[in-house]
Amino acid sequence: MAKSARRAAWKRPGSPIGRKGPRKAHPRYTRNKNKNWSAGDVRELRRLARENTPTRVIGLKLGRTEISVRGKAQREGISLRPANRSPYTRRRAARR
Description:
mainly alpha, 96 residues
C-alpha cells in the first residue's frame, strides 16, 4: 500500500486554519474602538434613528458596533424603536 501524500488541512498553504498574524479588517467599516463620539457622530445617530434605520446599519455607517450604538443612544435618550409600526396589541376592527 502506498502512503498517502495528503497533508493535514492546517498544514496546507492557503488554509485559514491555524493562520498566524493579524486578521484582515472588516471591509464594510473602519473600527472606531475606544474613540470618543464627536458631536457630528451624535447628530448622524439622531438623523438615522429618526429615519428608522436598523441598528446594525447605523453601526456600519458610523464605523461602530451595534452594541456601542445602542449604548450611546440610551445615554443620549435617543429612541431606536421604529415609529412607523403599529403596536402588537392593535387588531383590525371586526367586519360586519
